[in-house]
Amino acid sequence: MASKLSVDQRLDLITRGFDSEDVHGIDAIRSALKEPSKTPKCLWVTSPTGKPHVGYYVPLAKFADFIEAGVEIIIVLLDVYSYLDNVKYPMSQVRQRMYYYRFVVAAALESLGVSTSKVTFVEESSYHFSREWILDQWRLCTLVPQQAVKDAWDRSYNPSILSPMFCPGIQTLAEEHLDIDFQFGGGDQRGIFAFAERFLPQLGYRERGHLMNPMIPNLHGSKMSSSHPPDSKIMFLDDAETVERKILEAPWRGLDPAENGVLSLIKSILIPVAQLQCKRQSANESNKDKEHVYINGNSHLSNTMAKDANFKIEAEGKCHLFTSYDDFAQSLTRGIIQPSDAKAAAIKGINSLLRHVRKIYENDLEWQAVDVLAYPETV
């Protein structure tokens, strides 16, 4: 479906919110947008390891911009990659985890109100056994030095077995074999994206664009990861009491969201979600003032109170309206908003999002059955 926006407007939508160093290959993205008969494709991959956490809301909320720009999103569930990278679990269990991730991502998108009509889920193993893909895999193996593979990881990595060494290459080949125009991932994908930018052209294929969202810290201030202890992060199926306990117990590490997990939830999840919902509400009711969001209320949308206000926080019985995180941060610095107010906002805002996910899980017997098979140790 052709977008009514100009190429520049679509490109602005796709790249907004990213620092310049987190946007690579912008000309490749622009070229795809200029083709009148083409629907640009974005690749987003996820590796099914531990149960997903709410940090996934950061990229999933960005999908709304891509869709508005007329982009089709291809979500690849990395069953082969995950198995090769972590041989602790059998392939049969990895595939059950892949199904679990699909349920979570679909429910999270629904909780955001993001349309899935332009989102396609693809199982990685579905295209790994074609003759063309296998030949490209062997061709790539003849080009890539071992050190280039190690450099592609986001950590100091010196695998003692062969299987993880294939992972950067198989993610790179997905760009060609799924015919995508740009790949979107977290900042921890920077090395793999650089690997793709280096070696895909050497195979004779066109260079793709790459976009990287910042990685948010866990509640204790370090990187949020599905493999980290449960109390360091909020899981999609945590009940309301657990969410409250985790946030209240989280240390308050100054006012830098990179080190303060609670502030990171507000800056990177709740405020973008609030802005997304206000934008949607404004589009639906263009003749009314823009609505705003209670990020510490029982629902996201409130009655209209102030034009251009995206969200509000209640502190000491007063309603404080904000249009950006910077506005909110200034109120924190000046003591108008206290850490306890911010934590209360985070608790109610996150629970408001997760309420929808929990309800889907409770009504989906297939998802519950997959949960038992994918994570028997947690059931």
Write up what this structure looks like.
By secondary structure, the protein is of the alpha/beta class. The protein is 46% helix and 11% strand. The chain has a six-stranded mixed β-sheet with strand order 1-6-5-2-3-4, with helices on both faces. The protein has a three-stranded mixed β-sheet with strand order 7-8-9. α6 crosses α8, α7 runs antiparallel to α9 and α11 (261-284) packs across α13 (339-362). The model is unreliable at 287-307 (pLDDT under 50).
Low-confidence stretches: 287-307
The neighbouring-strand order within the major sheet is: 1-6-5-2-3-4
What level of helicity do the residues show? Answer: 40-55%
User: What string, H for helix and E for strand, traces the elements in order?
Assistant: HEHEHEHHEHHHEHEHHEEEHHH
User: Per the principal axes of the C-alpha atoms, what is the gross shape?
Assistant: globular
Q: Rg to the nearest angstrom?
A: 21 Å
Q: What's the average pLDDT?
A: 88
Sheet with most strands = 6 strands, mixed
How far apart, in Å, are the first and last alpha carbons? 43 Å
Tally of separate helices: 14
The strand count comes to 9
- The helix/strand class is alpha/beta
How much β-strand is present in the residues?
5-15%
